[in-house]
Amino acid sequence: MEAKEVEDTKSNFRWCWFLLVSVIAILVIVAVVLAIIEDLKDSKKDSASHHPGPIVKKYADALEIALQFFDVQKSGKLVNNRIVWRGDSGLLDGIEMNLDLSKGMYDAGDLMKFGFPMSFTATMLSWAILEYGENMKTVKQLGHARDSLKWITDFLINAHPSENVLYIQVGDPELDHQCWERPEAIRGIRPLTQVNTSFPGTEVAAETAAAMASASLVFKKIDSSYSNLLLEHAQQLFSFADAYRGSYSVSIPQVQNYYNSTGYEDELLWAATWLYHASKDLSYLKYVTELNGQQFANWGYPTWFNWDDKHAGTHVLLSRLNIFGAKGMSSEENLDLQMYRKTSEAIMCELLPDSPTATSSRTKGGLVWVSKWNCLQHAMASAFLAVLFGDYMVTAQISTLYCHGKSYSPADLRNFAISQADYILGNNPMKISYLVGYGSNYPQNVHHRGASIPVDANTTCKDGFTWLDSINPNPNVAVGAVVGGPFLNETYIDSRNNWMQAEPTTYNSALVVSLLSSLVRSSSVVDSFYIAPTHVKSAPCSSI
């Protein structure tokens, strides 16, 4: 080959190489530009989806009213009392055991303190504050919610005087129900009930652990020492609940007539989940996944969330980890979290009214209705889980939920929740607000001792029944009370003696506060309370 040909070949090669490099450079530049454009789109999308909507006045007003029932139910020496017809009560509770159990809250229309539903009340209040505290703050209700929570957790701390002892009840319900009197008229020392290693109560100890663990997150930034104390009690109580397994309904048969437990496995998962969030201890995550998930979680079988059954709440709370991601978990743990999420999705599909798998447990007016006793608890609890799961989807940019081939959006879940809230607030066939104090038409004869007896009445245990049987409206408004609710045919009998429908409960108030706080702003997005996990040397959990 001649020199000229060699030079031409080299020149052609250089030219080809130049073209190739130029094309690659152009492609890289285009890719970068496209990525920047996509990032800008995502940024705008994030900004739009994370921008909270305007305040919805009716839910803000209802939230302010609902929170006041906790003040109605307070026991002990009252501070900053907002209820003019309430005074100090229960000041001697716990004194015979050198304990101060004067705080806490009365359970319902009676004067009992039941630890199991009271702890559930605290857990739900904590959850609402953690997810929707900003909404509460916007409408100036966050302080009231925290104060009510602390009134309960102060009691729970004192009710746990040693690692394996928990006082779960103040008062004798049989004796209590033989009297009709104001809480301020409580006389003498009331009996206490405890669970311990000889008489275990796994579900109540675990629920109390859940209450303290979740509350420790609420107070973490505002009172770190109190937060640490709550977490310490929560860890001890969970260890006690897990090591000495047994139902308190078996250990203490008397509770079966009031708050009978149908099992404790759900409370163990519920408590361990909250402890994982609060403590950063991965062994709690392992407890709810590898060790006990398959045995305890009822994956694939949706259940109704309430004071007795925590499965649905646990599924949704653990879905948070799967949706948002959690560092440090094993592949097996992540697969198990996917099972919690799938079950949560199945729950959502049952709640959506036009879903192929929609539950038939509803009234004609659309209210979720499961039981004639305190029927509203299931509607409120289900609605809260629905709007919360929908907000998880919004935060994670998940646009679609599939229910047997049919697609739904987070807005559909929020609309379902709104339908339940609006029904409770008066959009129902009776045109009655089941939230006392809200609207112009609400129950006047709530089954509630303090509300039914005039402040200046001088009654004893027995003659107070005159006020129970009176046909006159209550002289005091049990503001914020959520009554039991309508029958399946959507009727409601406003009679003080109709305790099936007319008696409010404190845990109902926690549920309605949770629901209303989620709806205060029309497109709210939850802030993450997740704390990155770390490994610790000690393992506080045991397997089956």
From TrEMBL:
It is an enzyme of class 3 (hydrolase). The chain crosses the membrane at residues 17-37. One of its GO terms (molecular function) is cellulase activity. Keywords: Carbohydrate metabolism, Cellulose degradation, Glycosidase, Hydrolase, Membrane, Polysaccharide degradation, Transmembrane, Transmembrane helix. Residues 59-516 form the Glycoside hydrolase family domain. It catalyses: Endohydrolysis of (1->4)-beta-D-glucosidic linkages in cellulose, lichenin and cereal beta-D-glucans. The keyword Membrane applies. One of its GO terms (biological process) is cellulose catabolic process. Gene3D superfamilies: 1.50.10.10. InterPro entries: 6-hairpin_glycosidase_sf (IPR008928), 6hp_glycosidase-like_sf (IPR012341), Glyco_hydro_9 (IPR001701), Glyco_hydro_9_His_AS (IPR018221). The active site is at 447. Its EC number is 3.2.1.4. Signal peptide: none annotated. Belongs to the glycosyl hydrolase 9 (cellulase E) family. This is Endoglucanase. It comes from Populus deltoides (Eastern poplar).
